[in-house]
Amino acid sequence: MLIAGFPAGAWGTNCYLVAPAAGEECVIIDPGHQAAPGVEEALRKHRLKPVAVVLTHGHIDHVASVVPVCGAHDVPAWIHPADRYMMSDPEKALGRSIGQQLMGELTVGEPDDVRELTDGSRLDLAGLEFTVAHAPGHTKGSVTFRMPETFDVPSVFFSGDLLFAGSIGRTDLPGGDHAEMLRSLARVCLPLDDSTVVLSGHGPQTSIGRERATNPYLREVADTLRGSGGGPTAAPRRGM
């Protein structure tokens, strides 16, 4: 399997291209702010043909390049219905103070073909299988994508802004909810195997085992489920 990722734009949002191998069809995950040139470079380098764009949530740092990328390759974009409005109205999604700063430099809107994600659904795209989990907390429509383990590759988990190396996504923007974020961590992340590779919306690669042992928020959730209580030590949050 081939996964080509790069940080894009002012927020360093990770965009990923996933394919069975070089020279094959691929799926693009979260083409955000200023991501289009990096997407085209990765497509040329690995001789890939995109068949779809899939989005972990609707914040502009994850979706700003959806229209040009989908338009250039005539492919659909998949997003949870609760976040779909954000593609056309980032100011409402981010709050006026942040949204106004961005509106002058961005062309917002939906691509021609938008399809909606549902919790527990399976996407079979480019010869790959992605299981969708609705994971609200950062936004109402946040989702994650999990790829199954194969004989030579561990399971891969695209966590968006749910889980980062050492932290979690912020919950202070419109639609954010800290308690809901902790429930999503418990429901979506804790059941995964320790060997699962975590590719986040921001920051470096990690694993579920590493985060289970060291991430203060994931540890808080696990302790609560065990009945030991306690709270997380302060840890910086990432993402828009």
From TrEMBL:
Residues annotated as domain Metallo-beta-lactamase: 12-202
Lineage per the UniProt record: Bacteria, Bacillati, Actinomycetota, Actinomycetes, Streptosporangiales
GO molecular function: hydrolase activity; metal ion binding
Keywords: Hydrolase, Metal-binding, Zinc
Cofactor(s) listed: Zn(2+)
Top-level division of the source organism's lineage: Bacteria
Signal peptide: none
Organism per entry: Streptosporangium nondiastaticum
A Pfam family the protein falls into: Lactamase_B
Protein name: MBL fold metallo-hydrolase
